[in-house]
Amino acid sequence: MTEQTLTRARAGDQTAFRDLTDPYRRELQLHIYRIVGSPQDAEDLLQETLLAAWRGLDRFEGRASLRAWLYRIATNRSLDALRASRRRPEDLQRMTEMPEPTRYGEAIWLEPFPDVLIEGVPDQAPGPDARYEAKEAVALAFIVGLQHLPPQQRAVLVLRDVLGFRAAEVAEMLDSTQPAVNSLLRRAREGLEARLPARGRERAPLPNSKLERDIVGRFADAIQTGDIDAVVALLTDDAWLTMPPEPYEYQGGATIGAFLRDRTARRGAPLLVPTRANTQPAFGCYFPSPQTDIARPYALLVLTLEGGRISAITWFGGSGFFPHFGLPRILR
Domain containing 139: what range? Predict the structure, then answer.
């Protein structure tokens, strides 16, 4: 940032303002997503953040960096949105005619995040206090864990442990104190660690590696041909199938297989279109419409890989987020 560009932006030069803020747009959008759990909400709140920054540029004193100032606005806009949100777990309309799950989990509002937006995030080195790698901090297990935390804890953990801002910086962002921030962070770490996969598990194959392509290809072939036994053979013994925001959770090959057989019996075998979400392989899922040559979108499936097997299938029902992934609205 140059003083000359800042001066021009304060004088109403929108091009100068874009020059100041464009380098941070994608990382701010990802930051907001981590807090609110929805790419569409993140996009809307990013626009609100930039509008607030444009209108309040005269109040930017330069004591902190422009990046930190933008993160302050984005974080507080996100927290305000969560407080004002009318979406509540009790609003869920329970799905009918579902196989009995292993358990009913806590309902959370969560949507997948397109990898195409992650690829646009610059390689911004996190601060020295960061505890999580950038890829780890956008994986579904991490995002799910965040959504179970209270909003203030969620924001503090992301700012401190993902982005590496110092406690004093976070306290200023949230109009709080360092002891309060440290207390929130301690509780957030305890809550998140309790939900993350156990340490020492096999790492996922590298993205687009031969091993990943082999597993994902075998999964797609099995699903599209209705070969549920082949799907089950790809799963780890303790694999989970979940479907946020619905509370149904299925664990183990037998239970997941029963769920997939039930879906296949009711709707037939789907067609899959590959994509990527939260740095993980994913598929847009389409079911053919009876007596037509059209297949309509139904869900997005995101796979979590462990070594050479699948440890989780996350089933996101609906198609409202398909455009974010460049997925077609229908298949012919």
Answer: 3-84+110-122+130-193
Q: How far apart are CA 33 and CA 118, in angstroms?
A: 11
User: CB of 281 within 8 A of CB of 177?
Assistant: no
Question: Who contacts 185 (Cβ-Cβ below 8 Å, separation ≥6)?
Answer: 153, 156, 157, 160, 161, 167
Q: Write out the chain's pLDDT in tens, 332 residues.
A: 578 999 899 999 999 999 999 999 999 999 999 999 999 999 999 999 999 999 999 888 877 899 999 999 999 999 999 998 755 554 444 555 778 888 988 888 899 999 999 887 876 656 667 788 877 899 999 999 999 999 999 999 999 999 999 999 999 999 999 999 999 999 999 999 998 887 667 889 999 999 999 999 999 999 999 999 999 999 999 999 999 988 999 999 999 999 999 988 888 899 999 999 999 999 999 998 888 889 999 999 999 999 999 999 999 998 888 999 999 999 88
Q: Which residues of 33-54 are buried (b: 16+ CB within 10 A; e: fewer)?
A: bbbbbbbebbeebbebbbeebe
Number of domains in the chain: 2
Q: Are 77 and 220 contained in the same domain?
A: no
Domain assignment present for residue 91? The answer is no
Cis amide leading into 245 (omega within 30): yes
E strand or H helix at 225, and its extent?
none
